[in-house]
Amino acid sequence: MAQLQNPLIVQSDRTVLLEVDHPLYEDARDAIARFAELEKSPEHIHTYRISQLSLWNAASAGMDADAIMGSLEQFSKYDIPQNIRREIVEFIGRYGKVRLVKRDGMLVLESEDAALIAEISRLQTVKPFLTGPLDTHSLQIGDRFRGHIKQALIKRGFPVEDLAGYVEGVRLPIRLREKSVGSRPFGLRDYQTGAVDSFHIGGSERGGSGVIVLPCGAGKTVVAMGAMAILQCQCLILTANTVALRQWRDELLDKTSLTPDDIGEYSGEEKNIRPVTLATYQILTYRKSKDDEFEHFGLFDQAGWGLIIYDEVHLLPAPVFRFTAEIQARRRLGLTATLVREDGREDDVFSLIGPKRYDMPWKLLERKGWIAEASCREIRVDLPEEDRMPYALADRRDKFRIASENPRKMNMIRSLLQRHTTDRVLIIGQYIQQLKIISKTFDIPLITGSTPLLERIALYARFRSGELKRLVVSKVANFAIDLPDANVAIQVSGTFGSRQEEAQRLGRILRPKANGSTANFYSVITRNSLDQDYAVNRQLFLTEQGYEYTIHDASEFSAPMEASR
Fold it and tell me: Matching CATH topology for 190-360 and 368-558?
């Protein structure tokens, strides 16, 4: 029953308004985040939307319409519009209405709704994948088109539940250690075990594909190891870059029974295929020209893989999507801190990798001490007078660059470095020339995409050991870099309004600190510019995860701010 003292307003257009300053805000946020997507997050009222995809992810996690309505009714201030229940029932009911199964060795699309099967058989986007009708309730699909038909049907509003099963792959004994090679106690945390179980689903055909969403520092790699240990099969692991690839190798050797001979690297540096092979997205998408074939896609066709792991699945390049559509008989595990894709292809992740199997609110992990507490601040600086006219006359892209490279950001960097003299600080940016100036001005080593691999690895190692306390890094540090003692990030420029990037950058400082200190995330923004406009979109990710995001004027830094604890 609706109560006026509750924090939610559910509207007939499937938007949900949440009152931020309400005592029940966190409980309501955590409840609706399971089936709704955050759209806007100004200071006092956050706007969520119940979408088809958000409902299908909820359905794949076992939620039904009654559970969703129960959450809405528990926290709603007013009566819920009559159409909301109807639409939730309709949309969530579409998940599983069409199923892919194996029947007598054939791949079959089936439904209890004969009219729906008849409709599907006439869709122009589906016809190329059909071999023919079997009966009024089923259609035969070409084996190579298991992913393609799922992609086509989700675009028409029908998410296919894939129950066609998987090849087992070549057996590979893998055991998790009770103590790491470094003699540290090791075991899966309760939420990591929950994530593995949600992916595996007891080995049934309902499991075996899907995405695990956990913040950086929460142990997504460990979840993957847990899946490997349950499945006991050869595995292909795809990573964002070679540094991440080698960190994966080190983690596997440290925490599992795998030996160096079991693990191969397939990158620009080496081409070794072993029972567990680590590859980069870059090498898989390499071709000599846009008209040539992708030279290394044959790696997917190696017969032994029983599991393919997609690290940073939100970065999956389009060509890898294309090939993943054709290898649906192999189990697929996606790992990410956020399912947000700037190209809007979340439905392709759903269709080709699998539905979201497990998601844990970042703030809940923070409260339990599994990731560091974080303070997120935006600091606004003015554009120098001499840059205002060039900014006014520039096109949109150049406007963003002028604002991002505002020279007054240098003084703010200096101020922040003075406030964090004993901390481990990452200065992160988009524009290489800007980063070179920062590196030279403050005598801090710089890592970019052109930094040689061995030099990059050496600098990260010096930072981890404490020999270096500051690093300037480009976008290469967005992805899967393990810097556990970094506790301050200063963001000076970013990729337009990328929420995905904000998640990665905050994640660089979220690993729990030995001394329990707070992580500090600063974004230095040019006031009244595109830099500020895009920052609003990036802020969405932080507020969605429950972080307080405070905005400061540069003048406030003339007085001491609270230093990191």
Answer: yes
Asked if 266 and 272 touch (Cβ cutoff 8 Å), the reply is yes
Beta bridge mates, 331 = 307
What does the H/E/C string look like for 301-366? HCCCCCEEEECCHHHCCHHHHHHHCCCCCCEEEEEECCCCCCCCCHHHHHHHHCCEEEECCHHHHH
Residue 300 main-chain phi, psi, to 5 deg = -65, -25
Strand partners, 276: 235, 263
Query: Given the structure tokens 């995860």, which residue do they identify?
Result: 545
Architecture of domain 190-360: 3-Layer(aba) Sandwich (3.40)
* Residue 173 phi, psi dihedral angles, 5° rounding: -65, 125
Which one, of 461, 465, 427, lies nearest residue 243 by Cα?
Answer: 461
CB atoms within 10 A of CB 179: 11
Architecture of the domain spanning 368-558: 3-Layer(aba) Sandwich (3.40)
Instruction: Compute CA distances 191 → 33, 185, 297, 364, whole Å.
Output: 17, 17, 34, 11
Residue with tokens 């057996």: 171
pLDDT in tens, 279-329: 998 888 888 887 777 778 788 877 699 999 999 888 788 888 888 888 888
Domain-wise residue ranges, the chain: 8-94, 100-162, 190-360, 368-558
pLDDT at residue 535, as a whole number: 79
Taking only the tens place, the pLDDT of each residue in 410-440 is 999 999 999 999 888 999 998 999 999 999 9
In this predicted model, what pLDDT tens digit does every residue of 460-486 receive, in sequence order?
Answer: 889 888 899 999 998 776 665 666 678
* 137-194 per-position pLDDT tens digit: 999 999 889 999 999 999 988 999 999 999 999 999 999 999 888 778 899 999 999 9
Q: Please check whether residue 418 is in contact with residue 410, taking contact to mean a CB–CB distance below 8 angstroms.
A: no
| Contacts of residue 256, Cβ cutoff 8 Å, sequence gap at least 6 | 174, 175, 176, 177, 225, 228, 229
Instruction: Label residue 60 exposed, middle or buried (CB < 10 Å: 0-12, 13-18, 19+).
Output: buried
Q: pTM of the prediction?
A: 0.80
